[in-house]
Specification:
The protein is of the alpha/beta class. 44% of the residues lie in helices and 20% in strands.
Length: 256
């Protein structure tokens, strides 16, 4: 189940991609299938080991085209172990709401992104998330849980402040909002409640079969109750004046 829409977020074979806070690896796997050179990074060592196993299985099964590469590694989002301008693409999906220093994470992503590179950020949407918080403290008051709810304008403003240029937004996973409302209403750890079990079966059917009726319903409902807010941005190249000044300074230094 992808949150990033790759029809709005173009990915070329050979692009170097960082999936930051990759979790179980869903976006990293898709980038690998599309021929990218993928680095999946997360602080959870257990999940990283599982992602590495899946990368190996995908390679063995021939699911990735020639030239594609995939690496899974543990790391800290606030101190990325990569040089400046290392990646063409950065994806961070459903992660920033967990991190106190979200501006620090944005700064690190911008640092490792090449000028002209693209970034996709997804977070829980304000309205559906507020319902979850109102229904259950246990939903967010846990170790590693959600510590903030973003409004769209707030997230976009932070991205601009970090030096990014947003170019598109949308919402995703409308069918998942009612599921989480039910989970919060009946207990986030209570998977045996009949409404929760029934709705979960519906979601599994939708994911596995992709029937037209649920695809159309979700497209219609995403603008209203989409569970995730998705923002796409680029890292601008240096302005022409600044680039010319950098060239002049470098030339002067070379002559000194």
């Amino acid at each position: 189940m992808l949150t990033v829409d790759f029809s709005r977020f173009p990915l070329a074979p050979g692009d170097r991609v960082l999936d930051l806070g990759c979790g179980a690896g869903r976006h990293a796997f898709e980038c690998y299938r599309r021929g990218a050179q993928v680095v999946a990074l997360d602080q959870n060592g257990e999940e990283i080991r599982e992602v590495a196993k899946w990368f190996a299985a995908m390679k063995e099964a021939g699911e990735a085209p020639a030239g594609a590469t995939a690496t899974a590694m543990e790391g800290d989002a606030l101190a990325l172990p990569f040089p400046d301008e290392s990646f063409d693409v950065v994806i961070i999906s459903e992660v920033m709401e967990h991190i106190p220093d979200d501006k620090g994470v944005l700064a690190e992503m911008v640092r490792v992104l090449k000028p002209g590179g693209r970034i996709a950020v997804t977070v829980p949407r304000y309205g559906p998330e507020k319902v979850c918080w109102a229904l259950s403290d246990a939903y967010h008051e846990v170790e590693g849980g959600h510590i903030r709810i973003y409004k769209a304008d707030e997230l976009l403003a932070k991205m601009r402040e970090a030096g990014l240029k947003p170019y598109g937004t949308h919402h995703a996973h409308a069918l998942h909002s009612p599921y989480w409302w039910l989970k919060c209403a009946f207990g986030v750890d209570n998977d045996k409640a009949l409404p929760v079990r029934a709705y979960h079966k519906l979601l599994v059917w939708d994911i596995m079969k992709k029937p037209l009726v649920t695809r159309v319903a979700e497209q219609l409902l995403n603008p209203v109750v989409g569970k995730s807010f998705v923002a796409y941005a680029t890292k601008p190249h240096l302005p022409e004046a600044a680039a010319a000044e950098d060239t002049r300074v470098a030339a002067g230094a070379a002559q000194a």
